[in-house]
TrEMBL record, chain A:
Top-level taxonomy: Bacteria, Pseudomonadati, Pseudomonadota, Alphaproteobacteria, Acetobacterales
PROSITE patterns associated with the record: ABC_TM1
Biological process per Gene Ontology, one example term: peptide transport
Main location group: membrane
ABC transmembrane type-1 domain boundaries: 93-282
A Pfam family: OppC_N
Protein name as it appears in the record: ABC transporter permease
Membrane topology: Multi-pass membrane protein
Similarity section: Belongs to the binding-protein-dependent transport system permease family.
Residues that span the membrane, as ranges: 21-46, 95-120, 132-150, 222-240, 260-282
UniProtKB/TrEMBL annotation, chain B:
Membrane protein topology class: Peripheral membrane protein
Record's keyword terms, sorted: ATP-binding, Nucleotide-binding, Transport
GO CC terms, sorted: plasma membrane
Gene source species: Neoroseomonas oryzicola
Coiled-coil features, chain-numbered ranges: none
Protein known as: ABC transporter ATP-binding protein
Gene Ontology molecular function: any one: ATP binding
Family: Belongs to the ABC transporter superfamily.
TrEMBL record, chain C:
Organism field: Neoroseomonas oryzicola
Presence of the UniProt keyword Transport in the record: yes
Zinc-finger in keyword set: no
Stated name of the protein: ABC transporter ATP-binding protein
Matches recorded under Gene3D superfamilies: P-loop containing nucleotide triphosphate hydrolases
Domain ABC transporter: 5-262
PANTHER family: DIPEPTIDE TRANSPORT ATP-BINDING PROTEIN DPPD, OLIGOPEPTIDE TRANSPORT ATP-BINDING PROTEIN APPD
Pfam families for the chain: ABC_tran, oligo_HPY
Cell location: Cell inner membrane
Chief site of localization: membrane
Length: 296, 323, 328
């Protein structure tokens, strides 16, 4: 009894990779997202070595050059103390990316274990975790973050801490609902029938199968966190000038609108592209990471 | 006389109703006062329509869900009150095959990993020995080694069900509970799987509790058959008796409703549909649809009587009408 | 007089990542007005895709018509605009699906959904929509026609209050709203219990007889075909391998696949006849076997079957087989 015709399926690993790329390449928006994210990561990585005016990062003052429009020497113009804006937004990418990734991973590290615990344990423990989570979710995130930074004192590290504290409940919610639905899958019952312990079921089945939506959410959240940090910077609760953080830059540039529009526009466009990139990539990943969608 | 491998006495499962803010859900008796016995190496079919409690019964017998009342004995050991840890060594000896093989396999594990999983859990083999064992199991169910590294979505339905069977066999169980094992498969594949199951039983002396709505399949696999309606057994006996010469009016209706290849047209054998388990009719659960019901049938649930030949029947009327 | 439905050399392909799947490979079928045709085959044989083609329900892309025609009352459906197709759907051709629960909106009362369907029919043919009350009267009439008791009360209930069999009856009633001449039923009883299946099959048979409906019934269950269809076409891997009167085919199948399929069905009344599986499994439609698509699994295949695709030919009156080795 052989299955002749079904042998045509190619070897899994390479096919899966090609399939992932194919799914991605079919969607223009996913490709755009991927391109934007790669561009920002590359800028962040090699930024310090490619910027035209490395000493402008810390805020050198050359008032003779202040508020110049874009030119061959300063592609994006200069700011109110004569710093090259291109240099500063490129270095800003490094800060924003680090902060965005840091907040997202820290929030997931707190939220996911709690959520899965709640989903699998059920009963009183679940009630306790979920009601505590609801408590956080019932207050608008940014407002709570502002209050927290106000208490902790302004600064980029405190802004991060505040944002992590308001960010984790979303992961509890997602991980819990995912764990709840996976718990009902027949393959979990099959593992129980084989005598698997709870810990093993969690490690081997629940966690790997919850990963896809978590990765999608994390991709989107990096963009949102970049935006949130910039917002805090904008209202003066995040990074302090002259740190080249995008939000802080816009905060100052605002005073020079509309005549010196290029000053505010550069960090604004970078924030926009970064958030857009991570969101589009997250959408694309959603399609790719579903193992059941691999039929093409 | 030897003891049966599996015995259930007075087994009941009630899903408690909940009183919510806006509406209360009623308690549902999914399985009620059910007695059955399965001998070593025997095959008992459980048939009935959706909502009759047959899948709940499977999970009760395997101690996967808590029971409300009754007693379960496995190989002379009372397992009614064992906790999860105490059940773990027994799990090796009783395995479950699901209806939908696609859902019963973790989408992220290859066929090899899926079959190896129980062996790893029970610490029965490692390394080279483990791989050899897995390959041998897959060969035994008719999957050549080419399939070892396939993921579930790269297998056909029949191939997935073979993987599930190999996984269940890995622990060398004495009892296989099969919950509609061929319902999700095409008929030509179903016939292959039935062959595999027959060969395994002959070779390994497995006992089957075979749950299905397909009477013809049950007739092929099982020596004895129990018919369930609304959580209770209404008739039980040898397959030849129950499916060849049914006595309970519900069994007759079931058999009469199966479309036959030889006959054009099908005459509905029973009006209406199975009642909602949350609001069962008074008396005998089948009486609203029963062609031979009399007013007395509405008064009380008839008992499951054991007849002289060991046949069990929950219908005093049937005995009156055709003794 | 032309037939009600004529499918001629219809080929449909799906473009997928792995390549182009030739899902339907030259289908030729004819259905007369008032005729009943069962389409049987196993998973992936293309029977549902064929049914959905009649209603233009296959998503294009990835689906793509390669060749052929589907003529309904002489005019080709494949060339129709969306607007022309809307006029046809429900009014001339209607469809009933496998899972009745997912085709009813759980939030709306049955009556509301039926009124919408009936008024939608009016709009599709360019008539003025009849008032709600008239539509409701019509809905009650339809529910009575499919044997549902107390139609008036039923119109006020919601889908979750109905059993599976009642939901399927409601959907059949809705399919009748536009007085169609052809009913396409895709596995209409697969989700139902066997006692209820018998009731729904009897209902379909009654409607066909009373209203002169033509029926195309898609199913994997030969027993269902035996119960409801005068003629049957057996499909395998996108081709029709045998077409015949149901009784003839079931008692004496001539194509090797049809023989295998029937031999695989366990017989309740003759348990001593062991069901026989068909060795192997269905082929890939992206790289289908050359010649006859069934040859890798066929017990009588020869060299010719591996190289030359057998065309379906009438070897007995009203009976055609796509097999080089078929003899009457």
């Amino acid at each position: 009894m052989s299955a002749t015709a079904e042998e045509t399926v190619a070897a899994p690993p390479r096919r899966r990779l090609r399939l992932a790329l194919w799914l991605l390449s079919r969607s223009f928006s996913s490709m755009l997202g991927l391109f934007l994210v790669i561009a920002i990561v590359v800028l962040a990585l090699i930024g310090p070595w490619i910027v035209p005016y490395p000493d402008h990062v810390a805020g050198a003052v050359s008032l003779a050059n202040k508020l110049q429009p874009p030119s061959a020497a300063h592609w994006l113009g200069t700011d109110e103390v004569g710093n090259d804006i291109l240099t500063r937004v490129i270095i800003g990418a490094r800060i924003s990316l680090l902060v965005g990734i840091g907040i997202t991973f820290a929030a997931a590290a707190i939220g996911v274990p709690l959520g899965i615990l709640a989903g699998l344990a059920g009963g009183r423990l679940r009630e306790a975790i979920m009601r505590f989570t609801d408590l956080f979710l019932s207050v608008p995130g940014l407002v709570l973050a502002i209050a927290l930074v106000a208490a902790l004192g302004p600064g980029i590290v405190n802004a991060m801490i505040a944002l992590i504290l308001v960010w984790w409940p979303g992961y509890v919610r997602l991980a819990e609902s995912k764990a709840l639905s996976i718990r009902e899958e027949p393959f979990i019952e099959a593992a129980r029938v084989a005598g698997a312990s709870r810990a093993r079921i969690l490690r081997r089945h629940v966690l790997p199968n919850s990963l896809s939506p978590l990765i999608v959410k994390m991709s989107m959240d990096i963009g949102q966190a970049i935006l949130a940090v910039a917002s805090l910077g904008f209202i003066g609760l995040g990074a302090k000038p002259p740190t080249p953080e995008w939000g802080a830059m816009i905060s100052i540039a605002r005073g020079y609108l509309p005549d010196w529009w290029w000053y505010a526009m550069a960090p604004g466009v970078f924030i926009y592209l970064a958030v857009l990139g991570f969101n589009l990539l997250g959408d694309g990943l959603r399609d790719i990471l579903d193992p059941r969608s691999n039929r093409g | 006389m030897t003891q049966p491998l599996l015995r259930a006495e007075g087994l009941s499962k009630t899903y408690e109703g909940k009183r919510g803010l806006f509406r209360a859900t009623r308690a549902v008796q999914a399985v009620a006062e059910l007695d059955l016995a399965l001998d070593h190496g025997a095959a008992l079919g459980i048939v009935g329509e959706s909502g009759c409690g047959k899948s709940t019964l499977a999970r009760l017998l395997l101690r996967l869900i808590p029971l409300s009342a009754g007693r379960i004995t496995f190989d002379e050991q009372d397992i009614t009150a064992l906790d999860e840890a105490a059940m773990r060594p027994l799990r090796r000896r009783m395995q479950l095959i699901h209806q939908n093989p696609s859902a019963a396999l973790d989408p992220r594990l290859t066929a090899e990993d899926a079959v190896a999983e129980p062996l790893r859990i029970q610490g029965l083999a490692t390394g080279r020995a483990l791989r050899d064992r897995v390959a041998a199991l897959l060969t035994e169910v008719g999957l050549p080694p080419a399939f070892l590294h396939r993921f579930p979505h790269e297998l056909s339905g029949g191939q997935k069900q073979r993987v599930c069977i190999a996984r269940a066999l890995a622990l060398e169980p004495d009892l296989l509970v099969l919950d509609e094992p061929t319902s999700a498969l095409d008929v030509s594949v179903q016939a292959q799987i039935l062959d595999v199951l027959d060969a395994l039983r002959a070779r390994r002396g497995l006992a089957y509790l075979f749950i299905s709505h397909n009477l013809a399949v049950v007739r092929q696999v099982c020596e004895r058959v129990a018919v369930m309606y609304l959580g209770r057994i209404v008739e039980e006996g040898t397959a030849a008796e129950v499916l060849g010469a049914p006595r309970h009016p519900y069994t007759r209706a079931l058999l009469g409703s199966v479309p036959r290849l030889a006959a054009h047209g099908v005459a509905p054998a029973a009006p209406g549909e199975p009642p909602n388990p949350a609001s069962p009719p008074p008396g005998c659960a089948f009486q609203p649809r029963c062609p031979i019901a009399v007013p007395a049938c509405r008064e009380s649930m008839p008992p499951l009587a054991t007849l002289m030949d060991g046949h069990r029947l929950r219908c005093p009327r049937a005995m009156e009408v055709s003794p | 007089m032309t037939a009600l439905l004529e499918i001629a050399d219809y080929r449909l392909a799906f473009d997928t990542f792995d390549g182009t799947a030739q899902v339907l490979d030259g289908i030729d079928l004819t259905l007369e007005a008032g005729g009943t045709l069962g389409i049987v085959g196993e998973t992936g044989c293309g029977k549902s895709v064929l049914a959905r083609s009649l209603m233009a329900l296959n998503p294009m892309p990835p689906a793509r018509v390669v060749s052929g025609q589907i003529r309904f009352r002489g005019s080709d459906i494949l060339g129709m605009s969306d607007r022309e197709m809307r006029r046809l759907r429900g009014r001339a051709i209607s469809m009933v699906f496998q899972d009745p629960a997912s085709y009813l909106n759980p939030l709306l009362a049955i009556g509301t959904q039926m009124e919408d369907a009936i008024r939608g029919q009016d709009a599709a043919v360019g008539e003025r929509q009849r008032p709600r009350a008239a539509a409701r009267a019509r809905a009650a009439e339809l529910l009575a026609a499919v044997g549902l008791p107390e139609p008036a009360r039923l119109l006020d209930s919601h889908p979750h209050q109905l059993s599976g069999g009642m939901r399927q009856r409601v959907l059949i009633a809705m399919a009748l709203a536009g007085d169609p001449v052809l009913l396409v039923a895709d596995e209409p009883t697969t989700a139902l219990d066997v006692t209820v299946q018998a009731q729904v099959l009897a209902l379909i048979a009654r409607l066909v007889a009373e209203r002169g409906l033509a029926l195309m019934l898609i199913t994997h269950d030969l027993g269902v075909v035996a119960a409801a269809c005068a003629r049957v076409a057996v499909m395998y891997a996108g081709t029709v391998v045998e077409e015949a009167a149901t009784a003839d085919l079931l008692s004496r199948p001539l194509h090797p696949y049809a023989r295998g399929l029937i031999a695989a069905v366990p017989d309740l009344d003759h348990p001593e006849r062991r069901p026989q599986g068909i060795a192997g499994s269905i082929p890939s439609l992206i790289t289908p076997p050359r010649g006859c698509r069934f040859h890798p699994r066929c017990p009588v295949a020869t060299e010719r079957c591996r190289s030359e695709k057998p065309l379906r030919r009438e070897i007995l009156p009203g009976r055609s087989i796509a097999c080089h080795h078929a003899t009457p």
